[in-house]
Amino acid sequence: MAEMGSSSRSNGAEIILDCISDGVITIDLQKRVTFLNRAMQKMLGYNVDAAGTLLACDVLIQSNICSTKECVLERALQGERVSNFEAMVRRRDGVHIPVSINT
Question: Which of 15, 92, 17, 12 has its CA nearest to residue 47?
Fold first, then answer.
């Protein structure tokens, strides 16, 4: 049996994530946005091509805790499970939208 490459697995996961109604953002270790599912694209006003040009802090509003150990992204990247963290995201037009973050 042939083994799927990581890009095939990634594309498969993205297809599944595009089918759910919750907004999903994936980031890499440098906190660059690597994927926005369709629901999140619609919510934020960005298309999938824009994902690679965004940093998580361009979208997620955490004011004074960004880049500190209290940052929800730092906590998630360190392996901490984050549930129902209330935050705001910034749409492309600058409007802020409340969200609940789960990792």
Answer: 92
**pTM of the complete model:** 0.78
Q: Is residue 11 part of a domain?
A: yes
pLDDT digits (tens, 9 = 90+) for 53-69: 999 888 998 765 566 66
In the chain, the amino acid numbered 44 is L
CATH number of the domain within which 84 lies: 3.30.450.20
Cα–Cα distance for residue pair 31/67, rounded to 1 Å: 10
- Strands 60-61 vs 33-36: parallel, antiparallel or unpaired: unpaired
- Under a CB-based contact definition with an 8 Å cutoff, are residues 93 and 45 in contact? yes
Domain count along the chain = 1
Q: Scanning the structure block, which residue is given the tokens 């609940």?
A: 100
Q: Which residue range(s) make up the domain with 84?
A: 6-101
Asked if 45 and 38 count as a contact pair (C-beta separation under 8 A), the reply is: no
Tokens (6 digits) for 32:
């660059």
